[in-house]
Model the fold of this input.
Amino acid sequence: MKLAYSTDRFGDRITISFRYGLQHLFFAGRQPPAGKLLLLDLPTETATALAVAPPTEAASSDDLSLFATYIGEINDNAPLPAGYLAEWLTRASFLQTPQQIPELPEHLWRPATLDDLLEVQNFSSIAWEIDEYFDLAAFRDFGARYLPEVQERLQLLRIESAAQETIAHLQTERQRLERLLTILKAAPDRLAADILALQYHFDQVLIEALKQQPFTVERWLAVAPQITTLGDFCLEFARLLVQQTVDRASLEQTIRQLAAIPRLCAAIAYDQPFWEQLRPYLALPATVSGEEIDITQAREEVIHLNLALFEGRRVGAIRPERSALVVRAEDGKATYIAGQRKLKFQVARAGGRLERYQNTLIMGDQNQNELHTALLEVELLDTLANVDPPQALARIAHLNLPADHPVFQAATAAGKDARQARILSDLLIELTIGIDADIARQLVRTPEPVSRRRRRR
Done:
């Protein structure tokens, strides 16, 4: 029985990592290279060689093929004998180390070839990655050997009758052809990978040549059309740009210059390494003033620096990697508003209209009413948690929480000890309103902010 698996590195050891069952299978003695495809050849007599205890049930001659089933492959043709494989893995003689690390003996593996893939039992699990382990020469030689067979088998295919023998023969032919054609189909993928590697090498040569010369934006932009893979090009451009450009206005002008070139615009739009280089040198002040902005549908999001934010409408100064409210128009363009979800509560408390960041923030009547009701609910829940915990629980009966939910434990504790009412109140508010309880209380009880300027003495 033959299986094909790729190798990986685990610490200073080479291993086969499985999806289920054993996490890692190591190698005794000679170590294979990492990132290679191996053939595990497990003949029936391996059971004797590995000193496996006899299975509790009668085993067929190919029981060792179920090894693949245990470690994560699905073998529909053979059910798993109860306890047999677990016994095989735990008592096999290749568990030689004091730490009981599973190690595969040298004689049970070797580098896989394309010819081997015609016989392995777990072909479906490796079919999608064949091109990663074999070069074009291997595919060329394989094609020279097997393309005549493919042509011959296709010519001989006939459906002459509905006899059982005919069906069985056609199934065998189909499986053989499927494997042959799947392997051959991987050749174009290998070729595409090699072409990409050549293009990447050519790009690196151009980038290194640019780095040897004094940096100018014009020189780099003139070479950009020759670059195929723009990721490294944009990253190096950003690094040199911030080293040479000390004027923030010039830096922003260069970004706009890049955005005006469609191909470069697409490359930098959401390229995080590019923007990470620029982030310490960019400011994102407000770009919108004197407008009336509806924040009824605004959502709180963590804002990442990208071209959309750089060019977008900003209400107040926006800080990347922090939360802000985002209003998205039907065309997909966004307006970024400095503030979190509590800003919507503040607008609701102000009657649905609030002056902020030199703009007027408004909310629809329906949303105002919903928020006003929510704020009243906060005060009610706070009160009931202290004076009537069962009545407080009745306010969340519609949530159908499980009996072991912490809110029920908190209610029981609050009925015995008034000091536990704060915990119950926090849970009730967060379950009902959906924001942190302390923030909700602050919105309910804190008056509108006043100037923090200190009076002159």
In short: The longest strand covers residues 323-328. The chain has five domains: 2-130, 137-203, 227-281, 292-363, 367-445. Residues 238 and 278 are 7 Å apart (CA to CA). The mean pLDDT is 79.
